[in-house]
Amino acid sequence: VSAVLTLRERFVWMARMRAFEEACLEGAESREIHGELHLGIGQEAIGAGMVGALLPGDAVVSTHRNHLHAIAKGVPLRPLLGEIYEREAGLCRGRGGHMHPFDLERNFSATGIVGSSLGVALGYAYASWMEKSGAVAVGVTGDGGVNTGAFHESMNIAGAWKLPLVALVENNGYAISVPMEGNSATATVAERAPAYAAWARRVDGTDVEAVAEAFAEAVQHARSGRGPALLEATCYRFQGHYEGDFDLYRPKGEKEAALRDLDPLARAERRLVVLGEATDADLAAVRESARAEMQELLAEIRSQPLPDPRGALDYVFVGSGG
Ligand SMILES: Cc1ncc(C[n+]2csc(CCOP(=O)(O)OP(=O)(O)O)c2C)c(N)n1
After folding, report:
1. Would the pTM count as exceeding 0.70?
2. What's residue 322's pLDDT?
3. Is the Cα dihedral 211, 58, 314, 91 positive or negative?
4. Which whole number is the average pLDDT over 15-29?
């Protein structure tokens, strides 16, 4: 179905994803980006693990923390970053912003309503079944989102009707400040799968090869008509919940340990060096070139105009503007 990527190729994707997120971080610090900004730094192995597994007709519906999934689905970086920087030339002409990138051509969307990505993805999955298109819908959510009614309802119907839905759960340990054990009746999300007649796997979401393998299998299962797949990928969120979060809820030393052991880029680098597939200098050059690419893009976007405030409602409602 999909071209299999090498570890080195996936590392390049992760480096570009990290640099993309850092380019966004810059906009939060300079206050060029308004509102809450949720970054996926630390979660790049999930985004990069998705690359290559989906067909153009497949859909991805993401969350408030959506940039890496958009990149994985093939949304071009220029309009994506332009949208996050609220530019008229952005993906949604600057009206959606960071939380609501929407790309009809690439079947990518996101919602800030926690858990509801699953319901939207379920709609795509139902359409695929009705039209016999063979398309799969991926609904992304977090360890918090899986406790919403929308998640249970969507998974149940997908199981009952054997719809091609993949629930991709990024378990980064916290829902804002609440750890998984504070709001989940089960220790893992994957163990809920039998209640939905779903295929399930729990994978180390900081190991890009493990994610790639498990995600491809989840997609294949959903596409085969055997019902939904539930893939739980564990990881660690290195930034605050959003940029501006006081970040006072983590036990002492936890983040430092995670930075040492669970950084997906560092993990891939160590493996590439051990396998003799890259040197430290090669890998540093990959990171540097990703940073240069994003800085160049950012400079271009900064020179672009913001939308005219008089057009704030254009393109927002059917028949308004455009
Ligand atoms: C229905 C709904 N309730 C509450 C919120 C506020 N909120 C935004 S993000 C978030 C936590 C989400 O946690 P999780 O699903 O684990 O995703 P993460 O932020 O860790 O990626 C909450 C409660 C919301 N956006 N939507």
Report:
1. yes
2. 57
3. positive
4. 98
Ligand 1 center to 36 CA (angstroms): 12
Contact 117, 63 (CB under 8 A): yes
Ligand 1 centroid–CA 144 distance in Å is 6
Atom of ligand 1 minimally distant from the CA of 150: 1
pLDDT of residue 248 exceeding 60, the answer is yes
Dist CA 139 CA 122 (whole Å): 8
- The pairing of strands 229-234 and 199-204 is parallel
Arithmetic mean of pLDDT, 172-196: 97
- The closest residue, in CA terms, to atom 3 on ligand 1 is 114
Instruction: Give CA–CA dist 1/4, Å, rounded.
Output: 9
Q: Give the closest residue (by CA) to ligand 1 atom 20.
A: 175
DSSP state of 309: G
**Closest approach atom of ligand 1 to CA 141:** 15
C-alpha–C-alpha distance, residues 322 and 318, integer Å: 10
Residue type, 296: E
Using the atom order of ligand 1, give the atom closest to the CA of residue 171: 16
Per the structure block, which two tokens stand in for 262? Answer: 């669970």
Nearest to residue 61, comparing CAs of 163, 167, 149, 200? 167
The answer to whether residue 2 scores a pLDDT higher than 80 is: no
CA of 111 to the centre of ligand 1 (A): 11
Tokens of 230: 């539930």
Q: What is the mean pLDDT of residues 263-284?
A: 98
Mean pLDDT of 68-81: 98
Instruction: Evaluate the CA torsion angle 121, 63, 257, 211 in order and state its sign.
Output: positive
DSSP state for residue 322 in the 8-state scheme: -
96 vs 188: CA distance, rounded Å: 33
305 CA to centre of ligand 1 in angstroms: 32
Query: For residue 321, what pLDDT is reported?
Result: 65
39 C-alpha to ligand 1 centroid (Å): 13
